[in-house]
Each structure stands twice: as structure tokens, then as C-alpha cells.
Write a structure and sequence with these properties.
pyridoxal phosphate, EC 4.3.3.6, three-stranded mixed β-sheet, alpha/beta, about 25% helix, seven-stranded mixed β-sheet
């Protein structure tokens, strides 16, 4: 069974664990960098991106997650997690992990009261994936190697670059595990590519 971690510095950790397990993986709550060695993939959940970034620096997760990514182990950033993995954040001099070739805007959909739910067409998954947007960021620009998976009103809300997956919304706040199943399939592919012949 694939071991999928959820970075437990902030955000809806238990909800991600529930959908990982519903999709057929083993969910692991990650609080230390030592736990990264046992994982096949990791989810960086929502919360407040500046706070998550500070906590990642405090607990040495920045370099450790960059090393995790260099091994081509899949990383999935949702909402604030999307901001954390981005190479560039609009209006900020520096980003956090600087992994995924995209420029993102924080709170692009407005404040808490502008939160909403909708069905999205997500490439490779389905045309009716339920998505919850809460103070959601947007992907403003993507590099050449980034595949756009979903848009909302012509704005990018989900994308993939190789072993990296990003979503502006909270897939964990629904009962729909298909986004997590897609990530598990990415992990399965990465394990097959990394295994010796």
C-alpha cells in the first residue's frame, strides 16, 4: 500500500487522511522531517501560506521537501499548499519551496465570505469534480512544462508538472476522493519509474 503523508503544520489534515484511505492509500500525519523517508508522496494542505512557510522553516522542512521533490516523489499542494510549492508568488519578493513553475496570486477569490462550491471539469479525472474554494489562490501563469488540468471562468485552478500537482481548492472538504485517487496514481507511476529493471 502506498504511504501518503499529509504535512501537519496547519490545515485540514484529518480530512485529507480520510480521502487518501478512501482512495486506497495509507495516510500518515507528518510532523517531523524524519518521517519523509518512509513516504511515497506527500500532500501540503490548506491553511495560511505565510504561517505554513514560517513553520516549514522552523522545523527544517524547506530543504527536506526540496530533496524529497528531487527524488521525483510526488507532492500535492492544495489551496495554501499550492502557494507553498509555487516558484513565484505575486507581490512577494521570495517564494517558499520554489518547486512548480507557476506564478500564483494569494486570496485571488476574495475573503472568507466569497467562499463557494462548484463542479469542475478536471482533465484526466472527470467533468463533475466537486470543489470547495475558501479564500482561494489562483495560478496566474504557468511555465512550458506545466499542464493545466482545470479552469474556472477561464482562470487556472488546477495544474500538474511531472510529479507535482496543485489545486486552488480544497478537495478534502467533500466526499469525492477522485482527486486523491489521481494523486495516488501519480505516486504509483513514480514508484514504477524509480524501481530498478
Amino acid at each position: 500500500m502506498m504511504k501518503i503523508g499529509v504535512l501537519a503544520l496547519q490545515g485540514a489534515v484529518a480530512e485529507h487522511i480520510r480521502l487518501i484511505e478512501k482512495a486506497g492509500g495509507e495516510g500518515i500525519i507528518v510532523k517531523t522531517i524524519q518521517q519523509l523517508d518512509e513516504l511515497d508522496g506527500i500532500i501540503i494542505p490548506g491553511g495560511e501560506s505565510t504561517t505554513i512557510g514560517k513553520l516549514m522553516r522552523t522545523y527544517d522542512f524547506i530543504d527536506s521537501l526540496r530533496a524529497f521533490s528531487k527524488q521525483k516523489k510526488p507532492i500535492f499542494g492544495t489551496c495554501a499548499g499550492l502557494i507553498v510549492i509555487a516558484k513565484e508568488i505575486e507581490g512577494q519578493p521570495e517564494a517558499h519551496l520554489e518547486l512548480m513553475d507557476m506564478k500564483v496570486a494569494r486570496n485571488a477569490f476574495g475573503r472568507q465570505r466569497e467562499s463557494f462550491e462548484t463542479n469542475l471539469v478536471i482533465k484526466g479525472i472527470a467533468d463533475d469534480v466537486r470543489a470547495v474554494f475558501i479564500r482561494a489562490p489562483l495560478i496566474n501563469e504557468v511555465g512550458q512544462g506545466v499542464e493545466v488540468l482545470a479552469t474556472y471562468h477561464d482562470q487556472i485552478v488546477a495544474a500538474r508538472q511531472g510529479h507535482l500537482l496543485a489545486a486552488s481548492f480544497h478537495p478534502e472538504l467533500t466526499d469525492d476522493e477522485r482527486m486523491h485517487a489521481y494523486f495516488l496514481e501519480m505516486v504509483r507511476e513514480a514508484k514504477q519509474e524509480g524501481s530498478p529493471c
